[in-house]
Structures are given as structure tokens and as C-alpha cells.
Amino acid sequence: MEKNKLMATHKCYCDTDLLFEDCCGLYLQKSQKAPTALALMRSRYSAYATHNADYLLETTYISERKYYSKTEILKWATANKWQKLEILSFTENTVEFKAYFLDANQKPQTHYEFSTFKLENGAWYYVDGKFE
Question: How confident is the model at residue 30 (pLDDT cuts 50, 70, 90)?
Fold first, then answer.
């Protein structure tokens, strides 16, 4: 109970300045679907920060899931300490962002991505990303 209370009262990982329970928590705890590609992207960042590999796989477009493994996602999510998300630009179905993290050696790293999303049957899915 105390852990849940603690989780609910902190700021969201995705840097919206909202509480986790009022932001990405709505989608990660499966009570709602992300209403936009941007909201899905933010929630996926929070999923990395909270090591929620199931959510990351579920929100990957079905034809792309074969390229990902839950074990590898979890390894990447837990090896890094997620620091900050910066949204550079977005359209209805794309999001350009930088994710800042400390790697396993506590060295600062930046992950840049231009992501594409698809809306199908009322749900947004991550399709793919271009990286620098």
C-alpha cells in the first residue's frame, strides 16, 4: 500500500510536470489508452523508466513486435537510469525526441529518435524510429 501511495504522488517521468497517476500512469496501469501519438511516446518513455516491458511490447505495432524481445527491452530499461525526456517536435503520427539517461557506468547518454506511430482500432502503436 505504501509503495503505491509513493508511486502516485511523484511527478511523471515524461517531464509534463503532472503527477504520474494523472499522466502516464493512466496508460501504464491500463485504465486508459493514450489518446495521441505524443501521449503514447511519453508513456513509453515512462515505461522504460519504470521497467514495464509488457507495456512497451503491447504498444508496439503488431507487425513490428517480432523485432523486439521482452528480455532485451527489460535489460535496456534496467541497465540505464532515465533522467529526462525532451520533445523536439511532433505531428499527428510522428514524435522527435531526446531521452537523457545514465548508462550502466553512470555516464550521461542521449538517445535521439524520430518515431512513427499508427492509429488502429482506436489505439496508437509505435511503428519504428530513425536514430542519429
Answer: confident
Grid coordinates in use for 90? 511532433
Q: In what order do the strands lie in the sheet with 81-90?
A: 81-90, 94-102, 108-120, 123-131
In tens, the pLDDT along 66-110 reads: 999 999 999 999 999 999 999 999 999 999 999 999 999 999 999
Query: Rounded to two decimals, what is the model's pTM?
Result: 0.91
Correct CATH for 2-131 of 3.30.1490.20, 3.40.50.720, 3.10.450.50, 3.40.190.10: 3.10.450.50
| 18-34 burial code (b ≥16 CB/10 A, e <16) | eebbebbbbbbeeeeeb
Strands (E), the chain: 81-90, 94-102, 108-120, 123-131
Residue 124 phi, psi (nearest 5):
-90, 145
Residue 85 grid coordinates: 525526456
Query: In DSSP terms, which residues pair with 128 in a beta bridge?
Result: 116
First to last CA, the chain: 42
What is the residue type of 129? G
